[in-house]
Every structure is written in structure tokens, then in C-alpha cells.
Model the fold of this input.
Amino acid sequence: MSAVNGLSDPTGALYPANPMQVDLVLQVQGLGRVFSGNGSPPVTALEGVHFAVRRGSFVVLVGPSGCGKTTLLRLLAGLDRPDRGQALLDGEPIRQPQRRIGLIFQQANLMPWRTIRANVALPLELIGVPAGERRAQADRLIEQVGLAGFEDAYPVELSGGMAQRVAIARALIARPEVLLMDEPFAALDALTRERLSLDLLRVWATREQTILMVTHNIAEAVLLADEVLVMSARPGRIVARVAVTLPRPRRQDMLYSAELGRLSGQVRSAIEDGGVILAQDDMPEVNRGVI
Amino acid sequence: MPPLLNRRRGRALLTALFGLLLLLVWEGLYRSALYPPFIVPAPAEVFARFLTIVADGSLWGHLLVTLQEVLLGLLVGGTAALLLGYLIARSPLLGQVVMPYLVALQAIPIVAIAPLLVIWFGSGLTSKVLICALIVFFPMLINTIIGVRSVPAELHDLMRALEATRWQTFRHLEVPAALPVVMGGLKIGATLAVIGAVVGEFVSARAGLGFLVNSARSTFDTPRMVVGVFMLAALALGLYGLMVLLERRLLAWQRHRR
Done:
């Protein structure tokens, strides 16, 4: 398993030699994706993306816009197929979309004709869970994300932040092994964003969920993550990994702490160096301590 | 705006007053004696004629014939438009192959096709239903295509990620998402269907509101023609109202606002 598709990882920095030692839920091995437009020259969106995600951890991917973060998430979700390499969920290649992988988009993407409860319960409805059980689970999650009292409201009656909370509840109700989040707070104002991200952490802590989130807000990345992965500009690839040593539970005031500032600085300089593609061996392994 | 106009009853009153105004203009035009009565008959005479046709029972017969043609035409044309529209929306190739012919069919005035249909299918119900169906088909087809294509790609991704079956995606996503636009097409279709029925009845018929108008024309019975025209307007209005009610029921969620 250590050398897949001819890729080597001598330091084992991103991909431990023996995956059995650590419980890896997601393994990304040399993933590449090239978009060939009609007539226009092909664009390499991703090249040799290589990393792994431990079960139950909160990993955040940051990088400049257009670095292929969304492309990567779509590949991991099985919504798109890679041209090279593979992504494994529990050791099995991801070939098509599946319930075990949850998805949260930039927009809440609620169904406007369904009530909040019916939106949250949709994943259960599709697998034939009886109505009473659906309702009970949905109401519990709606309460957990702080929307008790809105069960019978329709999406048009909610603000952007509230809608995104519903989307989070809908993603969690299916109990996916991995939750992929594509800039889930990008469309929200700064205050709502902060509050919602901390609430997400709270819900995450109770559910033993693995989360892989994409953002381009560095402070947010550090505040939330166990581990920050830095992607380079096109073609996108992982150029650095920063382990976040902040204690849990995370609090809002940590946003202004010296430690968060220091870690954010590391992430920022990694992004700025990102133009230089680092060889696998030179991968800066920042702060690789116990998470 | 004064508060009276904000209320529903106030608005209904205004609508009724406007109708009364139109009636007064008509009466004035009749009394001015600018036109002979066989061109502009008196409102009172038209109303009297209306009562006679009601009394001898012939009006309901004509109304029911036209209503039957219209409803069956809506059903046939609407079903065909929904089926084909969905298939075209899902398959761009099919759209490319058949759309030019559908557009050409739509471009031919219905009055030109109607006599052909009467020759092929006789002067009974079938030809009228087909004419109605034909005129209803196109706007409903276009709205169905637009409706199905307007389903957000992200919601399709969501359904894929939830491993929804083809049928589940259709039932839980495509149908409800396309419904507002499809209902718009149905509302247009309902009024157009009345036109289709009249066109058919003008070509050849033994009954129906269009037949009523056309036969009255041959005897210069203008009041009778006006009664027929008003009944057609009432029929179209009634159908439209029915569609609005149906829409309100099916799209109740749209009335929720912040």
C-alpha cells in the first residue's frame, strides 16, 4: 500500500507507510484531474494530490482561489472521476456518489417546497425510514443546530445562516463516515460565520464525525481544524500540512490568541510559497506533533 | 393607497365597478344610434336572448359540448407535452432531432390545420379534441422543457450523493422543482384550448359554443352571437380560475414568505 501508482512517499509525512497503525478513513493517492475543453487547451486542475485523513478528525484544506479545491471535493464525493490516481474510503476506491460520504455546498441547496423538517429528513426518506422515526431524528438534529421552532417553516423564511444550519443537519442525519464541506460559510457575513463554525464544532464533537472542509479563510481553518492542508495554485496539489496544536474545545476568543496567529502565519507563508511546487521529499512538515 | 384598496373586498369591488363602466359604454354606444342594432345590439336585448337560450335548454348543451372538447384536449395535449417535454429536457439529442418539426408545426396557423383534421377525423368530438390538444401542446411543451432544465445542478448532485434512484430523483426533485413553470404552461394552455375548440367548431360542428356563434352569424342574429362570445369568455375565465386554484393547492409552499 506504500507505493501506489508509482508514487513514493519517502518521509511518510502525508501518507503513513502502514495505514493499519492509524485509522485512516480517507486516503487520497496521486489524484489528478485534467479538464479538456472543446478547442481550448486542456487545463490541469489537480496533479498528484496525496494525503490521508484520520477517522474522527477535522481536516481543513486551504489554498488560493482556482486551485482546484472544489474539483478535489467533487472527486472525493464520487461526483466526478479522476484522470489519475484514486481516492479510497475505508480502503475501497470511491467510484460513485455514496451515502457514506456527506456533502455540504457553498449554498444551502434546500428544496424550497419542503419544510425544514422534510428537508432534513430527506436522506432518511430516500432509504425508507418510517415517517415517525424520520421525524424524531430530524427534530433532534434541528434542535442540535439551534433551529428548534422552525421545523414547519419553509426555506424562504430562513436567513442564509439558518439555511446553512439546515444543510448541516441534513448532511449529518445520514450519519456519513466523512463529511465534505465546500466553503460552507462563504456566503455568510463574518459574525454569522464565526458563530456557525463554532456551533459546527460543537455538533461535530458529539458525533465522532470525520470532516474535510475547504475554505480560504485561514483563521477559520486554524480555529476549526486538527490539521490544515495547504494547496498550491493550478495545478492544485498539497504543498504543506500544519498540525493545529490549539486545545479542544475551541473557543471564539482563541481567534485572537498568539498561538492561532502563529499557526495562521505558517499557513499563510505556505500558501504564498505555493507557486513553487515542492518535491515530495521537501514537503515542509510543520509542527507534526500529537494532535 | 387608501386602506380600502389594500383589502381583497375593496379590489373585488373595483373590478366589478370597471365591468359596470364597460357595460355603460356599450349601452351609450347603442343609445347614440351611431350603429344599427344588428351591429351593436342593446345590452338588455342580449341579456333577454341569454335568458331564452337558457330557458330552452340549448345553452347548457352547447356549453357542455365545448367544455368536453376543451378538457379532453387539455388532457391529451398536456399529457403529450409533459411526456415529450421531459424526454427532450433529459436528452439534448432528442431535442435536436424533433424540435425543428415541433416548431414548424407550431408556426402553421391552427385555422389552416383544422379543416385537415376534420377531413381525417370527422366532424365529431375527435377532431375538436385534437385541435385543442395541438394548440395546448406547444406552450406546455416549452414550459415543461424549461421547468425540467431549471432544476439546479447542485440539487441533482445532492440526490446523487444520497444514492437516490432514478424514480426518487424524478418524484422528489424534478417534479416539484419543475411544477411552478409547468403550471404556468397549463394556465396558458387552458385559455388556448378554448380557442382550439371554437376553431374546430367553426370548421364543422353540430353543437358547441363556437357552433352557436357561427350559426347565429348565418341568420344575422347578433344578440345570439354576443351571448355565445360571452359564454366563451366565461368558460375561459372559469378554466383559468380552476388552474389558479390547482396551482395554489400544489404550490402552497410558494405563499410562505419571511
